[in-house]
């Protein structure tokens, strides 16, 4: 009975340990699943970090390119401004020359008109040479005017290019500001991603340590479970032996009660037989006394002996 109660308690303990082990295994599986999901998150985070790094690198490279372009444009702008100043100075000089030449030309026209009015028509050969000289001056002045007009057109072209350069410069400055703002945003996101990655690695280390401890504990529990299983099997064998022994004891007790019952019956029979024996013995003694006292004849004695022999043969144990 003690072994049976011990077996029951151990069986209950084994069942409880198995339940606890199943629950711990379920928790371990959940932790492993969480670990896998965190690994996926880590890979996604690493991908995002790499993408942010690439974008930051591209932003820095585009920023450098924009700065180089801005430097080139500023240099071109300075050169164009210098050229513009030079051309403006030349323009002012040419404007002065043009105004002077215009005045001279007007004076020359007035003088020519006056000379044509007051000159004698009869001597045209004397005036051919001055007229030719004046025509040459007019052609030279016309050439200078054309040159001045061409330079003015170049100046206007340079001013148009300068305005375009200024517009490009303003556009590049806007792009540079946008790239700087984007670079700052990407830098902030990269710092946040690095912080999250470091926190995740720290948490992963702690989870790895907890998982290692849990696995060690589970291995110990499995060893305990195997030992308890062996003890349960041993107790089952003992219980089977005890059950066989109890069956043998019950059988022996049954046989004993049967034998006791038979013994009681036999004792009752023996008592009955003893009473019968005593009765027959008393009768036999009475018959012997009658035989001795009466002294009957030999024939009667013989008859009496013949009658007594069957009685003795019927009860041989009574003597």
UniProtKB/TrEMBL annotation:
Residues 126-271 form the Cortactin-binding protein-2 N-terminal domain. The keyword Magnesium does not apply. Residues 289-319 are annotated as: Disordered. Residues 18-104, 131-245 form a coiled coil. InterPro entries: Cortactin-Actin_Reg (IPR050719), Cortactin-binding_p2_N (IPR019131). Keywords: Coiled coil. This is Filamin A interacting protein 1-like. The gene is FILIP1L.
